[in-house]
Amino acid sequence: MNLIVENKPGAGGQVAIESAKHSAADGSVLLQTIGSSMVIYPHTYRSLRYDPFSDFVPIGTVATAPIAFVASPNTPAVTLAEALALLKRDSKYGFYGSPASGSLFHFTGVLLQRSLRAQFDHVPYKGSAPLVSDVLGGQVPFAFLAPSDILDLHRSGRLKILAVTGTERASQLPDVPTFAERGFGDLNYQERFSYFLVKGTPPDVVAKYRLALRKTVAASEVRAKLIDAGLEMGEGEPEPLTATMQRDYAKWKQIVKEIGFVAD
Predict the structure, then answer these.
(1) Does domain 68-182 have CATH number 3.40.190.10?
(2) Residue 216's pLDDT band (boundaries 50, 70, 90)?
(3) Do 11-63+191-259 and 68-182 show the same overall fold?
């Protein structure tokens, strides 16, 4: 099976999803997107022009990634406990950056703030690169980022990853604790990189894609490359993807409603 990759940036992935939605239901277009676009955006965007459940058929998840909590080199904290005590004690440390407003990175900070009941204000950036630059420069004391963006910086000691989301420690960060093991059970999720076909695609075509993904996630060389990039291997099956989407969709619906966030 040969695939041509066509990147369609814009609106946090919405452009690509809408394009896939309007493609022919013949299997010629396979959508890869992040989980946030399917379980968070429906609650934050008033004018979303797709439905994650009725417009698409799930194929499976190829990879997952935790959200990393990072401290600036200028922030006097080397553990999660020290960081949380610091931001509670001194208001000048009570803010964090994320690569985008309304993203999973943003809402990870919201959930942590709610647990701490302390000032922890959000500073949105337009992408990871400027945020990483400001964290390195000390303009932002804390940030939530993808491990893949900062693995080398963490390993070299230039940045400090203090914790990650998820139920298990990241393969490339075995010494970094999860939030869950430090008592923050709400922060047990990961970002997901999943595949979908447009609704109405013939069952035999759907079955071929699902089989191809199963073979992909079973390949040791694929697993090694994903882990090396700071990712974890996904399940490669439609059932876990559907179940996770339904659970996370309900979870974020409640959270977005409680905080009153609107993206547009």
Answers:
(1) yes
(2) very high
(3) yes
